Amino acid sequence: MRQFLGIDHPLVVVHDLSAVAEHYAALGFAPRPLGRHPWGTTMRLVQFDGCSIELMGVEDETLLDQHAIDGFSFGRTIRDQLREREGIALVALNSADAESDAGIVTARGICCQGTIQFGREVRLDDGRTGRTRTTLKIFVDPRLPRLGNFAVQQHRPDLIFRPDWLQHPNGASRIHQVTIMAERPHWSAVRQRLGGLYGDDALFGRAEGFGAQTGNGCFVVLDQAAVERTYAPLPPALAAEHRPCCIAIHLSVPDTRPVVSYLTSAGVGFTTEGSQLRLRDAGPFGNVFLAFDASPRLA
Questions:
Q1: Euclidean distance between CA atoms 187 and 143, whole angstroms
Q2: Confidence grade of residue 297 (pLDDT, cut at 50, 70, 90)
Q3: Entry pTM
Q4: What is the DSSP string of 82-96?
Q5: Count of alpha carbons within 13 Å of 139, Cβ hemisphere only?
Q6: Residue 109: CB partners within 8 Å, gap ≥ 6?
Q7: Does a structural domain hold residue 216?
Q8: Are residues 13 and 157 in the same domain?
Q9: Which of 31, 35, 256, 268 could form a disulfide with 44 if both were Cys (CB 3.0 to 4.6 A apart)?
């Protein structure tokens, strides 16, 4: 059975894309060269096997409304969220059949704004170029603007997930958790959102919150107090955010010792708990707390 709408790539929107990519490189990641979208945004991908972190900036505001559908503009959404603050703007969900998957979630009450088809040029390491072909199904709820998603179907995965692009000196191999911060009055709406995407059977409880299992990794929901107990005090921009939003990305590694070496060299503070290592500062990484786990668990 194919995996259903696994976490594919959180979009981390930042003002200085080059500087943030350097911060990620200092942690032992290997960001890909600059790429461009047809709606005026640029990106640097940190790619893993079947998923990635997409660091994204805005380059050309004259293109923001290219490929707009049903009142949704991808480029304008990114621009508007970045004007508010840096952070995770959307989370892409992997799909092998975007049309079918959209039908499943809309039957559960999730609104789909429509379909975007696009491609971009990719230069391979041997100098050849190819053009990707991608289908997006947009799932954005104006009541939860920081928890928007889209199903992404890559028709040319050979141009996206090349084995030599998936290797990182720190050993990170995949995303296994994205943490959502939501105050308790919003939990019902967030639970309904996750249940609509994955079905109520995918939901699970935790001592300090709840979550949902996806086809790749899980979403975990915590309130602000639990977030600060788990990670560290929030940067001012995140502390002022009262809407549900994604604030942390957890990565699987075979061994945290190489990560510790990079963090020590970069002077980045962290805490450890069992086999998990958590960075204490989200600001340099686009208002995202990063965590590394040598033996990730569901909940």
A1: 13
A2: low
A3: 0.94
A4: HHH-SEEEEEEEE-S
A5: 26
A6: 192, 196
A7: yes
A8: yes
A9: 31
